[in-house]
Amino acid sequence: MATGLNAERYLPDKRTLPVLQKAVQNCHGCDLYRNATQAVFGELEAGSEGNRPVAVMMIGEQPGDKEDIEGHPFVGPAGKLLDECLQQVGIDRREVYVTNAVKHFKWEPRGKRRIHKKPSVQEIKACRPWLDAELEAIRPRLIVCLGATAAQAILGSAFKVTQERGKIITKAGLPPITATVHPSAILRTKTDEDRHREKRAFIADLKKIAALIA
Ligand code: URA
Ligand code: SF4
Fold first, then answer.
1. Does residue 105 line the site of ligand 1, with CB under 6 A?
2. What is the share, in percent, of the chain residues with pLDDT greater than 90?
3. Where would you tag: which of 10, 14, 78, 202 has the fewest CB atoms within 10 A of its CB?
């Protein structure tokens, strides 16, 4: 069924960030645009565009409820936690371009709430041309996959984040890649103890990244 899904034909000829950012709003490369408010493209922290070379591209899964409404990546609870942890390890947020493997919010209703739904392999593949265009435009020195969906998009489904987090992986045509958990996995833990442990492990991974880009 979903074999024909692909964003490629919606990509503009001129692939600068502002042009891509506009063009993605018209993407019908898969069905996820239907129930989302808008596409959420990657970006640098507001106000820091062009200030310095981008050291890191961090890739999440997809926009969440707040991102879908506001039109910016990582502005909800997961983004707040990410910003806090970046600050703790001394990574300048202005050197980090944040984006997502999938640009539209996938959700299902539960009462009045919109509950996040995992994008399918086909949807991740369909959206990959946008990610490639971002990589071309940004040329980061390091790619950081946050969680399994981003790792799937960049490293394939055989990659297991839990077993291989923090390793540096090389892939033809791409800068060095590393993967860690998604900050929302930390927020989803059931006990304080689990949350603290997961957060410490996440910060340890970010520390390695900080050393790499220093
Ligand atoms: N989670 C993600 O993966 N991306 C966002 O932009 C926000 C939450
Ligand atoms: Fe296009 Fe990606 Fe949105 Fe699907 S999720 S419609 S491929 S931008």
1. no
2. 92
3. 14
